Amino acid sequence: MKRLSLLLFVMMVSVFVAACGNGTNESNTSNNKATATEKIGTTETATAEPVEVVFWHAMSDTHEKWLEDATAKFNAEHKNITVKLVNQGSYGDLSQKLLAAAKAKASPTIAQAYAEWMTDYNQNNLVVDLAPMIKGENGFPADQSYEDISEVFRNDNTFGDKILGLPFNKSSRVLFYNKKYFEDNGLTPPTTWEELAASAKALTKEIDGKKVVGMGFENGMGSEFSMWVEQAGGDFIDEQQGKVLFNSDAGLDALTFINDMLKDGSARMAGEDGYMSGPFTRGDVAMYIGSSAGIAYVAKDAGDMEWSTTPLPKGVKQAAPFQGTNITMFANSTEAEQEAAFEYMKYLITPENTVDWAKTTGYLPVRTSAQQGSDWTSFIAENEPYQAGNTQYAYGFIDVRLPGSFAMKNAMQAELDKMLYENATPAETLEAMAKKGQEALDQAK
C-alpha cells in the first residue's frame, strides 16, 4: 500500500466508528529477539525468563469484566507469562492509537482489530503471519484444531497465504423486538421486509399511554448498507477489482425501503440517543436491528420488559453480516512475546471459553464444535434472545476488507445522511454514495 493510503486511513477512521510512517518488522533482527529456550505449555513460556504480553482492546462493561477474569485465570495458569490488558476506549480510539504506535514503532504485542484495519497493517508489514505458529509443534491441540474455527471467521483472517489474526468477539445483526407490543397487537415477529414494514406501521401508535414508533434504525447505517444490498439480492463490492457494485436496482430497492419507512413515520433514527438500545428499552420503539453483542446491554437496561430477538427479515434472500474484531499480533514484538501471545490467543477461543464468552456477552462462539455442543445448545434453548444469531451461520457473510474500506464507508455515510436528514431522494443518494465510495477506494490503491 502506498503511504497515501495509510495517511487517508488515519484521517478517516475516527469519523466512521460510532457503532472505529511505514512500520518495519524489527522482530527479524536478532538483537531484539529473546532466545527460545523452553517449549510453551500450560505453565511455561518460550523463555526461562518472565514474558509480558501487552493487549490493547476496546471492551467495556460486561465484556471487559469477562476479559479481565479470563486473563487473570490465564496468568495464574502460566507462571512465566503476564498478559497486561490496556483499555484504549472506543474502537475509533483504539484504531488511531494503534496507527500512532506503529509510526513510533511502539505497538503493543497484540490488539483487537477489524479485518479492514489488518489489510492496512499487512500492506505496511506491521503484523505477524500466524500460519507458521498454527502449523508448528505448539499450534492448536487435536481436540480444538484450527479447522474447527468457523470457516467464515477463518476467511476473515486469511490474506493470501497469510493468517493475520484469530477471531475473538464475533457478532451478527439480529432484530430486537418488544414481545408484549407484538403479542398485544396480534403480531408475530416479521420474517420478510414486507412483514417488517407492516408491523412497523401497526405498532406506530400510542401504546399504554406512550407514543411508540414501530421501527428504529441505528445512526451509522452506512456501515450496514451491505446487509440491505445483499438482502435485496444485489452485490455490494467486487473485492478482486475494487469496484463498487451497489449502484444497482437492488441498491435502490434497499434505500427506497428504508426511506419509505422514515417518511411515513413508522421508523426513526437513533438520533441524539446515540444507539437504538436506549429508545428500545424505554419502550419508545417496538423493534430495531442491532448487534447480537448488544444483548447484554439490553438485558441490563430492560428491567421487566418482555423482549427477545429474531433472525433478520429477508428481502429477495436471507443475508446476515458477521461483524466484530479479531486479535492480531504486531511485528515489533520479540519472538518470546509472540509465542506467549499466541498461547493466550488460543486460550481465549478454546471451546469452553468461546461458549462462556458468548453466554456472557451475546457474541457468538467462533468454533463449530462449540456452536453444536450441548453446553451452548442447552443454553440458547433456555435463553431465547441468543437463538437468532446462532441460526444465521448458514447465510452469514463478512464485510469488504479492501484498503480504503473505512474511508469508503465514511464517504457513503455522509451522502446517506442527506437522504436521512435533508430530503435527498434514494436515487440521487445512491448515485452519490457510489461515486464517493468508489473515489475513496481508488485513492487507497
UniProtKB/TrEMBL annotation:
<keyword id="KW-0732">Signal</keyword>
<keyword id="KW-0574">Periplasm</keyword>
<dbReference type="InterPro" id="IPR006059">
    <property type="entry name" value="SBP"/>
</dbReference>
<feature type="signal peptide">
    <location>
        <begin position="1"/>
        <end position="19"/>
    </location>
</feature>
<dbReference type="InterPro" id="IPR006061">
    <property type="entry name" value="SBP_1_CS"/>
</dbReference>
<dbReference type="GO" id="GO:0055085">
    <property type="term" value="P:transmembrane transport"/>
</dbReference>
<keyword id="KW-0813">Transport</keyword>
<comment type="similarity">
    <text>Belongs to the bacterial solute-binding protein 1 family.</text>
</comment>
<dbReference type="Pfam" id="PF13416">
    <property type="entry name" value="SBP_bac_8"/>
</dbReference>
<protein>
    <submittedName>
        <fullName>ABC transporter substrate-binding protein</fullName>
    </submittedName>
</protein>
<dbReference type="InterPro" id="IPR050490">
    <property type="entry name" value="Bact_solute-bd_prot1"/>
</dbReference>
<dbReference type="GO" id="GO:0030313">
    <property type="term" value="C:cell envelope"/>
</dbReference>
